[in-house]
Structures are given as structure tokens and as C-alpha cells.
Design goal:
single chain, alpha+beta, 3-stranded antiparallel sheet, 8 strands, globular
């Protein structure tokens, strides 16, 4: 599969943290230079991002007012493996949905519109969404290290189970 055939993905929430994205794509949260070349600042309109009750490190996107927007990145994977890693990270509870993403220039102004996928919850309606917007800076300051430690522990356990 060539790069031109791999559909880009609008990523938001935890994956806006370059260390979290590096962990998901490379298995090394210090590989931020690798993932930086795959992303472009972007927005999606008609959606809003909120904290999920009891777990504000987890954001949920919901359809919202047309003028509402969610900040994120347009991720343009170089390989099918990178795209699969995003899909695996999102899990079975989230489903890819085609969207139009607005890519931003260095000043934050709209540059172009791009067709991409975005992963959204597709199970039973979540009744635990708070009215509080999800915040990347708070996630990075208070939760990222704990989240990375958990992910690394789970990866070690999976590797141990696989090698058993």
C-alpha cells in the first residue's frame, strides 16, 4: 500500500500529546521527532470535546453546534502499519468515520480541507459525558506520565504472555 492510498486520520485528545502519539506509533515515547513529521495542525468543525465522568484524562467527541470545533492533528501515516497502530489504539469501542478536516497554517488560519477518518464512540450512548471541555495541557501536566507508565506495563505483560 503506497502512502497515497493510506487514508489520513484526524487525531484529538490524548494523541495530541506528541509523547503519547510517539508511544502509540513507535513504542517509544521519546520518538517525538519521528511523529512530528507525520502531523499537521488541524480542526474539525461541528463537534465538541468533553471529559468523561470519573476519567477526565479520557476525552469524548460529540456532534455539536456547526460553529463548534475540536483542535487536533491531521495524521498522514507513512505506512499501513502506522495506520493499523492508530486503529488498534482506538479499539473496538471507537469506529472510524469519514470527515472533512481543516488543516491550519503556522498562524492557525485555515489552509486547506482534507478528507480523513476520525474515530468516534459507536456503542451505547455515553451518559457520563461532563459539561467540562477536555484539556490537553491538564492531561500532559497531571496524567501523561501515569498513562505512559500504564501503557508500558500493559505492553510488557502482553509481551510476557506472548512469549509464554
Amino acid at each position: 500500500m503506497s502512502t497515497s492510498q493510506i487514508r489520513p486520520v484526524f487525531i484529538y485528545g490524548r494523541l495530541r500529546s506528541l509523547r503519547a502519539l510517539a508511544w502509540v506509533l513507535t513504542g517509544d515515547d521519546s520518538s517525538t521527532a519521528i511523529v512530528s513529521r507525520l502531523i499537521q495542525p488541524a480542526k474539525i468543525y461541528g463537534f465538541a470535546q468533553f471529559c468523561v465522568e470519573y476519567c477526565c484524562d479520557y476525552p469524548e467527541i460529540v456532534e455539536h453546534e456547526p460553529h463548534s470545533s475540536v483542535d487536533g492533528y491531521l495524521l498522514v501515516p507513512e505506512t499501513a502499519s502506522q495506520r493499523k497502530k492508530i486503529e488498534d489504539f482506538e479499539g473496538k469501542s471507537l469506529k472510524g468515520r469519514p470527515v472533512i478536516v481543516t488543516v491550519l497554517d503556522a498562524d492557525g488560519n485555515p489552509k486547506k480541507a482534507v478528507h480523513a477518518d476520525m474515530y468516534l464512540w459507536h456503542g451505547k450512548p455515553i451518559d457520563k459525558i461532563t459539561p467540562y471541555p477536555w484539556n490537553l495541557e491538564a492531561f500532559e501536566a497531571f496524567t501523561l506520565e501515569r498513562w505512559l507508565a500504564w501503557e508500558k506495563t500493559m505492553a510488557r505483560h502482553q509481551q510476557t504472555d506472548y512469549n509464554s
